[in-house]
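Ticket #451: bound-state structure for pyridoxal-5'-phosphate.
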Amino acid sequence: MTLQKRPGACVMNMNGTKDGNGIARELSLWQRAQEGIPGGVSSPVRAFKSVGGEPVFISSGKGSRVFDVTGKEYIDYVCSWGPLILGHAHPRVIERARERMEKGSTFGAPTEIEVEMAEAVKDAFPSMERVRFVSSGTEAAMSAVRLARAFTKRTRILKFEGCYHGHADSFLSGSGSGMVSFGIPESPGVPDSFARETVTLPFNDLEKVHDFFEREGSGIAAVIVEPICGNMGCVLPADGFLAGLREISSRYHTLLIFDEVITGFRVAYGGAQELLKMEPDLTLLGKIVGGGFPAAAYGGRKEIMEILAPAGAVYQAGTLSGNPVAMAAGLETIRILKEARSTIYGELDAKGKRMEEGVTSAIRESETAATINRVGSLFTLFFASEPVNDLTLAKKSDTKKFGKFFHFLLDRGVYFPPSQFEAAFISASHSAEDIEETVEAISDGLAALKE
Ligand code: PLP
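RESOLUTION: The complex was predicted; output attached.
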């Protein structure tokens, strides 16, 4: 649609701009987004920066599918970056949320549903003897670190390269040079003094953890880790890595925090800690726990959690914390997972396995330098010639190739995460046909890249 300029009048429409001839033209949704929102998006990865091109605007989703504003349909492997383990708009989840909303969406007072939710979380994660609800994974991580600092009366934290724990200042620091003693800010706006309190070591390098603890262990409040990493792409813990972290944390009276924002209710009902038989001191949950609404949680041993206000002195609060609608959607999601616990994780794993087999043979046939990492329904195809066990290896991936591959899939109606360094998610609503269609598109994509 072209908006004609009325003579003598300055035509500026909310959705328009003027070209060189004074003709006002309609702006695309992407142009409008950039006029209103920094970089056009509410969270950076959505902008397609690392794959090029313009992002797709999604208008709706149902089951394994999303639909963009032009009506084009995609098999979705982003699944809102993890929450939608049951797929889009699951009827039971939507019904519970609607029912709850009709009775009022928020009260800023205790509600029965958050008590039920706490019981459900404790039941799934026995290490979480007490649980506090917040609105995002970032908030959960930030609050757990404050709690760990207060509990241990220490200030420094240890995290790992490639793990992501949200965007609070404590986590936006990377490894410094040399002996990796001091963190350096990874974003303008993070003070050096904050970054220095965070040490970052390579994921899966237990020897470096031992060296570091020997020098400075008595000052470390917490070790925080994604037990199965999803944020440099899917990367698995090496044998003994997590057990080593558990042992050394206990020895130095440092708290071990498992960030299960992705893995919680995903890799098993009780998360990575159930799958890998580990017991952290504190656990972070997000994504699935909110059933597609903004909710997250942190929790752990009673004596640690009970120093939180108002039981204790460590302050943390939130207007919408434990929001009833989010709790209703999350609780219904968890209930569905629990009811189907004996089959649903096996089915998710079988779909993931078929994807892995299909992708592996496509890699072989096309002689592409690529590898796939997978745990259950979480996977990443890296354009890397070596196995990927840490961030340094992940970064050896050919990101240009990934960008071309991504767009090939997008054209074919397969919506993959728009970055080499993100995990893809399969949901319970992905059918065997969806997986086969995707494997075929991936095979064709890899063959096309070769040409
Ligand atoms: N922790 C992990 C492991 C995550 O993957 C994320 C987000 O992707 C976060 C924390 C932060 O969660 P949120 O985006 O809800 O703040």
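RESOLUTION NOTES: Residues 286 and 364 are 36 Å apart (CA to CA).
TICKET STATUS: resolved
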